[in-house]
Amino acid sequence: MSSATSTTSLPSGLDTLTTFPDVLFIPEIVFGGLVWILVASSKVPSPMVQGWVMFVSVFCFVMSTALLCLYICGAHGGSSSWVTLVSGCDEPQALFYLSAAVLEAYFTYSISVFSDNPLILTIYQENIAAVVFAFLATLMYVIHKVYSLLRWKSS
Prior knowledge:
The chain is an all-alpha fold. It has one domain (19-154). It has four helices and no strands. It has helices spanning 25-41, 47-73, 81-111, 118-154. α1 packs antiparallel against α4 (118-154). The protein is elongated. One of its GO terms (molecular function) is structural constituent of myelin sheath. This is Myelin and lymphocyte protein. It is found in: Membrane. Keywords: Lipoprotein, Membrane, Transmembrane, Transmembrane helix. Belongs to the MAL family.
């Protein structure tokens, strides 16, 4: 009786930046940081919506940066449990970002009615950019989740 065990070698060091899906940490961090900056720089007419978007962008930015640093440092030691950890972290991040992107899009749509005021127009333009980057971050987290699950299944 033979056991078919296949292990997926996890990258460490700078190899993390050249392997897929681990290279997706970079656009996740970049898009999340842009959402964070855009929401933080806009005036806050609706603190509840903007607060949730800020929480999500900061939380996901910190989590992705921490995971990338741990991968680069080689903290995983080749353990397959890290594949489970990353795939478990991507799901809530993707759901959080989807909820934040939808709320930000709804908020941006609702303030478009008042677009004749120059201050509201500036807020509107910053929030449109935040919505675009939030949906791009969501897409990156979903792609990362799918490929992390494929890696997990093969490990």
